[in-house]
Structure formats: structure tokens, C-alpha cells
């Protein structure tokens, strides 16, 4: 989820426009990641 959003942000930045806000599905996925992060991403 985070990788896809970062790609989205980068693409929009090259176009000179801000990224779109998170969708409901993206927000839910982000919340789940914050509650139970993968071991390699815990410091993030």
C-alpha cells in the first residue's frame, strides 16, 4: 500500500500537481499497517 502511494505521489509531482487524498480502502490499509506493522517496517 505504501509503495503504491509513494509511486502515485512521485507521478503527480512530475506533473506538478499534488497527490490525491487517500481513499477509504487506502486509509483502512494504512490503519492496519500502523496497528500491526511488518517486522522490517516497525521503525518506520
Protein architecture, described:
The chain has 44 residues and is mostly helical. It has one domain (2-37). The protein contains two helices and no strands. The longest helix has 13 residues, at 2-14. The mean pLDDT is 88.
Q: Can you count the helices?
A: 2
- The rough form would be described as elongated
Fraction of residues in β-strands: under 5%
Radius of gyration: 12 Å
> End-to-end span in angstroms?
14 Å
- In N-to-C order, the SSE pattern is HH
Q: How much is the average pLDDT?
A: 88
Number of domains in the coordinates?
1
**Helix content range:** 55-70%
Give me the secondary-structure category: mainly alpha
Strand element count: 0
| Low-confidence runs | none
